[in-house]
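Render FLYWCH-type domain-containing protein in 3D.
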Amino acid sequence: MGSEPAPAVYVPSRTGKSLLLHDGYTFYLKNLQAHGRKQWYCSSRDMAGCRADVITAPARSGSGDILFLVRGRHIHGPPSYYFTPDGKYVRRKDAYHRYR
């Protein structure tokens, strides 16, 4: 018997968009693909050149998405995040630069 695919977990970013959260790393939506699949890039792709990405797909039963494919290795440690009082997920560095 195969294991159940992991459910996709989403958190709201400071701009209000959804981020995919997986193993302590966040990913932003890059491409919509066929059959409801979505490609997500590591949030550190532009700054650090990290090439890790994830493909999500609609769950076959129930609602929500599953992790369909996780590719690449991160070239950095997971960033430090916290939830703001209004429920947004903010990277500590962003909060420092934005609110100092």
